[in-house]
Write a structure and sequence with these properties.
The chain is α/β, with parallel strands linked by helices. α3 crosses α4 and α10 packs parallel to α14. The chain is 39% helix and 13% strand. The protein is built from 14 helices and twelve strands. It has a seven-stranded mixed β-sheet, with helices on both faces.
Length: 383
């Protein structure tokens, strides 16, 4: 029987293993020197003008970034329904309400014109999501935010190392960007995330809130050569700190981020070439001169395709190939649907995209034979 080809696998080498072993032998397993090294390296990767705060997930990062941006109960935060639930659930953690805006059907990113129409006196922030690794229309979004006095917290979970008009996502003129290092992302720490911000006050608040609202990092207290046992709890914070074991992975993964992106870009180009004559819509590319992270490769089956989306995925699994769907729009999930009394066609572009979208395997551990196997299976179903 043919081995099953999964949808995604992390690409971890001897360098990461050695760095993790070094952490274990050092005695630092929780937040310590490796976490600090990873934060500094990430800030340099972003261009060196921002601060980076490591956390145990992008969800945690979004939560405390919004809290640091002073989002509170009764506020509204505009975002897209075409995302993972974490983007919106962190708004609810703070007692605020997400307000969904439909996507641009060409990019799957939030429609900037829709943001402008959704602003109300209660609106306090925007969370744009850089879907699949393609940057949102940030000039338009930043313009809207400035006109209405809104904060911008970018959900950059897919977007390392995405660029927009020559600038790295994470170095834009926004309040913060939050990256994910989940096992399927473009670089991984297993679980983990990073907040990047150019605002010192916001960075300081995030550092406090990621570890129980304590006024000093545990790392600083436990490495001090003088008595440093005293600390103060100045806010009801959270347990969101990254471990040194996770950061050890991140240190070495970050060194490979650009190489990984090139491999993903080449794989996306190979898929494009193989599928041009099929009844599908290919994913959009970044504009000339910019970089798409290619976290995902999402095709959309045309109306006249010989199989529908669900049957396509079933047949791919029968051929031993894993696929996924990004995303089931939030407004058709029971919680969001029922709380806000939403219907599928309230956001028609998001719903139509969902009905036809399939994410194909795209990861740096795939061999040429693996990718050719995916190509052959897709062509067998759709040609």
């Amino acid at each position: 029987m043919t081995d099953f080809l999964p949808f995604a696998l992390p690409d971890v080498g001897d360098e990461e293993i050695a760095e993790v072993i070094d952490s274990i032998r050092s005695g630092w397993l929780t937040t310590g020197p490796k976490t600090k090294r990873f934060e500094l390296a990430f800030a340099e990767f972003m261009g060196g003008n921002n601060e980076s705060i490591a956390v145990n997930s992008a969800t945690a990062g979004l939560h405390i970034a919004l809290e640091a941006a002073q989002i509170t109960a009764g506020d509204e935060v505009i975002t897209t329904p075409y995302t993972f639930t974490a983007t919106a659930e962190v708004v609810r953690y703070l007692g605020a309400d997400p307000v969904f805006v439909d996507i641009d059907p060409g990019t799957f990113n939030i429609d900037a014109a829709g943001i402008e129409r959704a602003v109300t006196p209660r609106t306090k922030a925007i969370i744009p999501v850089h879907f699949a690794g393609l940057a949102c229309d940030m000039d338009a979004i930043i313009g809207i935010a400035r006109r209405h006095g809104l904060r911008i917290i970018e959900d950059a979970a897919h977007a390392l190392p995405t660029t927009y008009r020559g600038r790295m996502i994470g170095s834009m003129n926004t309040d913060a960007a939050v990256f994910s290092f989940y096992a399927t992302k473009t670089i991984t720490t297993g679980e983990g995330g990073m907040i990047v911000t150019g605002q010192k006050q916001l960075a300081d608040r995030c550092r406090i809130m990621r570890l129980h609202g304590i006024s000093r990092d545990a790392f600083d207290r436990y490495t001090s050569t003088k008595p440093a046992w005293y600390y103060e709890v100045i806010a009801p914070g959270f347990k969101y700190n990254m471990t040194d074991v996770a950061a050890a992975l991140g240190i070495e993964q970050l060194k490979k981020a650009r190489r990984f992106q090139k491999i993903r870009e080449q794989m996306a180009a190979a898929y494009d070439e193989a599928f041009r004559d099929l009844p599908i819509l290919l994913p959009p590319h970044a504009p000339e001169g910019d970089m798409h992270a290619w976290h995902l490769y999402v095709i959309r089956l045309a109306d006249h395709a010989p199989v529908n989306r669900d049957r396509f995925i079933e047949k791919m699994y029968e051929k031993g190939i894993g696929c996924s769907v990004h995303f089931i729009p939030l407004h058709i999930h029971p919680y969001w649907r029922d709380r806000y009394k939403l219907k599928p066609f309230d956001y028609p572009h998001a719903y139509h995209a969902y009905e036809r979208a399939v994410s194909l395997p795209l990861y740096t551990r795939m061999t040429a034979d693996d990718q050719n196997r995916v190509i052959a299976a897709v062509r067998a179903l759709l040609a």
